[in-house]
Amino acid sequence: MLAKLKPLFYYLRAKYLYKWSDRASFEQWQERRILRHLAFVRQHSPFYRELWADQPLAEWRQFPLLDKGIMMENFDLLNTAGISKDEAFSVALHSETTRDFAPKIGNITVGLSSGTSGNRGLFLVSEQEQAQWAGTILAKVLPRSLLQTEHIAFFLRANSNLYQSVQRGRLKFSYYDLLIPIDQHIATLNQTLPTLLIAPPSVLSLLAEAANLKQLAIHPRKIISVAEVLDPLDRQRIEAAFEQTVHQIYQCTEGFLASSCHYGTLHLNEEYVHIEKAYLDEAQRKFVPIITDFTRFTQPIIRYRLNDILTEREGLCPCGSIFTAIETIEGRCDDLFIFPSTEDSVVGANGKNVIVFPDFITRAILNSCAEIVEYQAIQHANDRIEICYLLKEGASRMQAEESMTQSLSELFQKLHCQMPEICFSHYHFIPGIRKLRRVERRVVQ
Q1: Which helix (H) or strand (E) holds 83?
Q2: Where are the alpha helices (DSSP H) in 110-252?
Q3: Which residues are within 8 A (CB) of 377 and not within 5 positions of it... i.e. 6 or more apart?
Q4: Which of 247, 284, 291, 287 is nearest to 270 (CA)?
């Protein structure tokens, strides 16, 4: 009985108790929580105990940084549950192969990341952490109170005990496997009529198209984009089809990092995760997050550098939240386009190269042609990019390509980088096992 009440406790805490009137008092509270958490981690994780040596906990911002490679290499000693990487991988891979995501190691849920960066990561979650996650995410995403009946439709590559834990009381959870053709899911959706729709934007776009064709007859109270970057093109299409704001959840193997307020603005979940900003371009407000999750005990995440590019919102959100507002999640640092510079010293240049952020490419393409339905920009070499695209029926490909070439040429001239060769091809992405990356760098070093 107590176990069933835990998610309710965390729901109520996130919904009603975690409130701060000013940033200063919140940061004092956050610092106390972090120091208490670090004391536990030092005592129970051999890896962190050795990594931090005898440094005072108050100096935790100077502790060494981690990334996915370091975490996976030291997985056995890093986690506090005594679970080996081989054992965890065995359980996770068996679940993915059989599509049975129920097995645990004792009371520990094991998950596996999608491996977008080519390096799949493991995550471990205890029953208490699972209860906290369930209560917290319900408080942040449910369109109404917990007392109302909701049917959640959740599209993702893999299911998990973590996701199933939100199903309780009046909440019904339905998992939709992305490996199954979307047409089959549409028939099921029309039968179940979900009130909360959660899916990657590439899938939401397909559902929006089905809704426009009168093939999909659902009217969810809330739509949430997950797992992929929410591109302006997808956002516009989804919002037009369903006549509502698309919300977002920013979650990865390393934690539940951000969620939308009722205005649709992403806010960092700083009551659970401390975020340091490693700026790539402070003037453009673009940074890489370094996260310290002070609620995860089984697999501690301390000063962990992600590979994502975030743009901080300029100005306060109308919702009044004291938590950092995010304008966009652009994608991965791996997908920064890099071109030779036309000058010896320019702003944004890295040596003799110029770094171009993904949203610059996106805006140049979308602003050039209103007839674009789908697109993907791929850098194959430092002097060659490919634009895969689909136009509205009847639109001229010649005119579209001329407009995109002109727009990109103006961008590269402004950034003082050499104009690459641009080739064009038909758009061919199909949602499923692979995440959509609208702007992707595939240069082989």
Answers
A1: none
A2: 127-141, 161-164, 182-192, 201-212, 232-242
A3: 337, 361, 362, 365, 385, 386, 387, 388, 438, 439, 440
A4: 291
Confidence (pTM)? 0.86
Give the pLDDT confidence score for residue 158 in this predicted structure. 62
The token pair at 125 is: 């979650």
**Which residue matches tokens 């890099």?**
338
CATH of domain 336-441: 3.30.300
What pLDDT is recorded for position 196?
Answer: 94
If we measure between CA atoms, which residue out of 272, 299, 298, 251 comes closest to residue 10?
272
Q: What does the alpha-carbon distance between residue 257 and residue 181 come to, in Å, rounded to a whole number?
A: 30
pLDDT per position as a tens digit, 377-387: 999 999 999 99
Where does the chain hold its CATH 3.40.50.12780 domain(s)? 2-331
DSSP helix/strand/coil, 248: strand
Phi, psi (degrees; rounded to nearest 5) at 25? -65, -35
Distances in Å between the alpha carbon of 35 and those of 77, 103, 126, 336? 21, 34, 21, 35
Please state the rounded mean pLDDT for residues 78-83. 94
State the Cα–Cα distance between residues 411 and 363, nearest whole angstrom.
10
**Residues of CATH 3.30.300 domain(s) within the chain?**
336-441
pLDDT reading at 403 higher than 60: yes
Average pLDDT over residues 284-297: 95
Q: How far is CA 302 from CA 57, 60, 78, 256, in A?
A: 12, 9, 11, 14
Listed range (56-70, 162-176, 239-253, 297-311) with the worst mean pLDDT: 162-176
Q: Are strands 196-199 and 171-177 parallel, antiparallel or unpaired?
A: unpaired
What DSSP string runs through 362-389? HHHHHHH-TTEEEEEEEEEETTEEEEEE
Tell me whether residue 174 is exposed, middle or buried, using C-beta atoms within 10 angstroms of its C-beta: 0 to 12, 13 to 18, 19 or more.
middle
CATH number of 2-331: 3.40.50.12780
